[in-house]
TrEMBL record:
<feature type="domain" description="AAA">
    <location>
        <begin position="612"/>
        <end position="732"/>
    </location>
</feature>
<keyword id="KW-0812">Transmembrane</keyword>
<keyword id="KW-0808">Transferase</keyword>
<feature type="transmembrane region" description="Helical">
    <location>
        <begin position="38"/>
        <end position="56"/>
    </location>
</feature>
<feature type="transmembrane region" description="Helical">
    <location>
        <begin position="529"/>
        <end position="549"/>
    </location>
</feature>
<keyword id="KW-0067">ATP-binding</keyword>
<dbReference type="GO" id="GO:0004715">
    <property type="term" value="F:non-membrane spanning protein tyrosine kinase activity"/>
</dbReference>
<dbReference type="InterPro" id="IPR005702">
    <property type="entry name" value="Wzc-like_C"/>
</dbReference>
<dbReference type="InterPro" id="IPR050445">
    <property type="entry name" value="Bact_polysacc_biosynth/exp"/>
</dbReference>
<keyword id="KW-0472">Membrane</keyword>
<protein>
    <recommendedName>
        <fullName>non-specific protein-tyrosine kinase</fullName>
        <ecNumber>2.7.10.2</ecNumber>
    </recommendedName>
</protein>
<dbReference type="InterPro" id="IPR025669">
    <property type="entry name" value="AAA_dom"/>
</dbReference>
<keyword id="KW-0418">Kinase</keyword>
<comment type="similarity">
    <text>Belongs to the CpsD/CapB family.</text>
</comment>
<keyword id="KW-1133">Transmembrane helix</keyword>
<keyword id="KW-0829">Tyrosine-protein kinase</keyword>
<dbReference type="InterPro" id="IPR027417">
    <property type="entry name" value="P-loop_NTPase"/>
</dbReference>
Length: 834
């Protein structure tokens, strides 16, 4: 049975819309193309591996990280180093000192000091043929010391080549010298006049090298380096760039279990550089904190001493008034005193006195900040609060004011650097004043609440006589001043104790060390995988896009599933120089395929003994319509059936060439009445096969083919021949074949493998399922089968089922593929075992 005719198709409207619709993506063809192009994946893999190897060895700059852990003491109480106590104002605790330390470590002032102290604006490298390697300062055999009073060109590579005997050649770039130079003294740029490129020069160590854009000398490293370098490349950067680079590479975290332990990390291109920086940074921070602690504690002690002296005078005055009332007015023994209310008032006013004292201290701190008298700063604990962020902000503000004073000597007030420093100062002032306002708000709320409670308690004493109330007011005033004096005295003792016992409040637990840590980045392995994966994906994507854009017929199963049109046979690739495959190679698989088509045609045209008209067409030219016509006619003629082949593709005559027939007189001549029917019939070397060529190309081929004379021609030929094979025009270009199909007994539609477009089959499929065309079958042409791999169509017709078995002529050239050899060997081995 013909494939596609084994089941009845219910041609309802919904199904008809689906006929001729192919899937967007052919997964089977896609997988075949992947296997076919396997070598591209191998090539891309090796290319990707080579690129990734080159990247890892010669391009990737390793990033290292070192860590330092330190412990924060809980005994600190100075302003610039706030303590670790619970902040009663906010009703919560926290690592205030740790927050302050973190901000200080990441502050511009601290890191700017380190940059200038350690000359971190001088960067060292060495370069091989391809890759440059960053060096730690201590790795270099010499240090470059710039003259800070001389203008320098930054971001300008200076190559230092050892020449022996403590001599080094200074090699500058061939171009790139600039007239916009940087001053390390004022940290700003200035323009100079144009100058010629400085020549290379050999200098001794400690000898100054001077050019219009540079002035430096080389200082020998006191510790001899074990590594010998062919060159040292030095790049100068601005202080600002160096500071920003450091801040971006430093990380500060706290231990999850003990929040007074701080872990500081530093990343960089050189491990020794990160280690040296961390250790130096913490050392300088310890020194600065100790100095600040002593300064602030001394200021606090002096402030409390002055406050105590003032309060002492008030206390003495208040005591004299109270004694006078006791002795003169005899009011020391008041009958029926409400001791409970008096005690409550005494406690409330003691609290009020303490808050007022702290507010006075707060006013002192505010005035100090506003007047920039940072050298007179007192501890914020004297004002009753400890806020690490506020303390760090004021510390930063102090550094900004110092910086502004330095810059004001070289910049105008409206210059951009001055505008930027003013912006930073205003930002810090807003942060600090915001914190003070919050504290003031809390104190005012507390005072308001205390005053309300005092008023309520006073109402209960309103029944006392006037003199007794006067004595009670004097007593309350004395108690309030005494409470203030006691509070200040207590804070003075604490300040003296801190000053006497001041010690560094941070201690290093684990210093940063070079333990041979491996790089933390870049992710070379991941990058290698990405490079290889990306290159492997390239042919995959190309094939995928090709598959998505591919609209050609490549799959027989998909063709039949989409069209529901029967398949008469599959024709293999024609390797002959002409189209006479059946005549020249009768034992070939292609010839056998045509015999199979001949046998299958009986399902389209019943065998009733009458003459049969077989029309052969296709979508467009080049699909093998004429080739199939010639060979099918040859097969029928060789089977002892009188057959004639009509070349009715009047627009593109072809048949005459393969049969060596003169095309001077053909069907076009007959249809115009120029010749008789016998004059256009030509004999061939097959006794039962005649051919009528198309003849000269007429100006009106459609009208001729649809003329009554053409129909009479076909009817006349039916009386003479058993089969009439019509090589008709392609239906995708002209409609002639559709009209001829009305008079044919069987219609063969040629589909060429990997040539016919899917959309071209939409019309023929619709006409077939709308019963406009009957007796239609597909012939699949030019199907190339991979030998031995099982790509042949599974119906057993036509091409590709006998390779390697000596059945066809092609089998003599058959070579069994390697995979098939391996499969057969394994199968034979297993058969022997069983």
């Amino acid at each position: 049975m013909i494939p596609g005719k084994d089941a009845t198709v219910d041609k309802n409207a919904a199904q008809k819309d689906k006929f001729g619709s192919f899937s967007l993506f052919d997964i089977e063809h896609f997988l075949r193309r992947l296997l076919k192009n396997w070598y591209w994946f191998v090539v891309m893999f090796f290319i990707g591996y080579g690129i990734s190897w080159f990247y890892g060895k010669y391009y990737a700059q390793n990033i290292y990280s070192s860590n330092l852990s330190l412990s924060i003491s809980n005994s600190t109480a100075s302003y610039f180093t706030p303590n670790q106590s619970i902040n009663f104002i906010w009703g919560q605790g926290g690592n205030q000192d740790g927050v302050y330390l973190k901000k200080m470590l990441l502050s511009r002032s601290h890191n700017e000091f380190l940059v200038n102290e350690l000359n971190l604006f001088v960067n060292y490298q060495t370069k091989g043929l391809i890759k440059a390697t960053y060096l730690d300062k201590d790795d270099s055999p010499v240090f470059l010391e710039v003259d800070r009073k001389h203008l320098q060109q930054v971001n300008y590579p200076i190559t230092i080549v050892p020449k022996g005997a403590n001599s080094y050649e200074v090699v500058l770039p061939e171009e790139g010298q600039s007239t916009n130079l940087y001053s390390y003294e004022f940290e700003g740029f200035q323009n100079i006049n144009n100058y010629e490129r400085p020549a290379n020069k050999t200098i001794k160590v400690n000898e100054w090298y001077t050019t219009p854009n540079l002035r430096f000398r080389l200082i020998p490293n006191p510790v001899a380096s074990s590594i010998k370098f062919d060159n040292i490349i030095v790049n100068l950067s601005t202080v600002n760039d160096a500071v920003n680079g450091i801040i971006g590479s430093v990380g500060v975290d706290f231990d999850r279990e003990i929040n007074t332990i701080m872990i500081i990390s530093k990343t960089g291109f050189n491990l020794n550089s990160t280690v040296n920086f961390l250790n130096k940074s913490v050392t300088e921070l310890q020194k600065k904190r100790f100095i600040d602690k002593n300064t602030v504690d001394k200021n606090t002690e002096e402030y409390l001493k002055e406050s105590l002296a003032s309060i002492r005078k008030k206390l003495d005055s208040s005591g004299s008034v109270l004694n006078y009332l006791k002795t003169s007015e005899k009011l020391y023994d008041i009958d029926n005193r409400d001791e409970k209310s008096l005690e409550q008032i005494k406690d409330l006013e003691a609290k009020k006195a303490d808050i007022l004292s702290k507010m006075n201290s707060l006013n002192n701190i505010r005035n100090t900040v506003e007047t920039q008298s940072f050298d007179k700063m007192i501890s914020s604990s004297a004002a009753g609060f400890d806020d690490g962020l506020f303390s760090a902000t004021v510390s930063e503000l102090k550094a900004l004011y110092l910086k502004k004073r330095e810059m004001s000597s070289i910049y105008t007030p409206n210059s951009e650097p001055m505008k930027e420093i003013n912006r930073l100062i205003n930002e810090a002032k807003q942060n600090s004043s915001g914190s003070l306002r919050n504290v003031y708000t809390v104190y005012r709320d507390q005072l308001s609440k205390i005053d309300q409670q005092v008023a309520e308690a006073n109402s209960e004493l309103s029944t006392y006589p006037e003199k007794q109330r006067k004595y009670l007011d004097a007593e309350r005033g004395y108690n309030m001043i005494e409470a203030t004096y006691s509070s200040l005295l207590s804070r003075q003792n604490e300040s003296k104790m801190r000053l006497a016992t001041n010690q560094p409040d941070i201690s290093v637990i684990d210093p940063a060390k070079n333990l041979g840590q491996g790089p933390i980045g870049p992710n070379v392995k991941g990058t290698k995988m990405a490079i290889i994966g990306g290159l492997l994906a390239f042919p995959f994507v190309i094939i995928l896009i090709g598959g998505l854009l591919d609209s050609k017929i490549r799959n027989i199963k998909e063709l039949l599933a989409a069209t529901k049109i029967p398949l008469l046979g599959v024709i293999g690739n024609n390797t002959n120089e002409n189209m006479l495959t059946v005549l020249d190679h009768p034992k070939s698989s292609v010839s056998e395929a045509f015999r199979g088509i001949r046998a299958n045609m009986r399902f389209l045209a019943s065998e009733d003994g009458k003459s049969k008209v077989i029309l052969i067409t296709s979508s467009v030219g080049g699909e093998g319509k004429t080739y199939v016509s010639i060979n099918l006619a040859s097969v029928l003629g060789l089977s002892d059936k009188k057959t004639i082949l009509l070349g009715m593709d009047l627009r593109k005559p072809k048949i005459f060439g393969d049969f060596n027939i003169d095309n001077k007189n053909g069907i076009s001549n007959y249809l115009t009445g120029e010749v008789t029917i016998d004059q256009i019939i030509n004999k061939t070397k097959i006794p039962n096969l005649d051919v009528a060529t198309s003849g000269p190309i007429p100006p009106n081929p459609s009208e001729l083919l649809m003329s009554d004379r053409n129909l009479n021609l076909i009817e006349e030929l039916k009386t003479r021949y058993d089969f009439i094979i019509i090589d008709s025009p392609p239906v995708g270009l002209v409609a002639d074949s559709y009209d001829l199909m009305k008079y044919s007994d069987a219609n063969l539609y040629i589909v060429r493998h990997e040539y016919t477009e899917k959309y071209m089959l939409k019309m023929i499929t619709e006409k077939y399922h709308n019963d406009e065309i009957k007796h239609l079958g597909f012939v699949y042409n030019d199907y190339v089968v991979k030998q031995g791999y099982g790509y042949g169509y599974g119906y057993g017709y036509g091409y590709g089922y006998g390779y390697g078995y000596g059945y066809f002529d092609e089998d003599k050239n058959y070579k069994e593929p390697l995979l098939i050899k391996i499969r057969n060997f394994v199968k034979a081995y297993l058969d022997r075992k069983s």
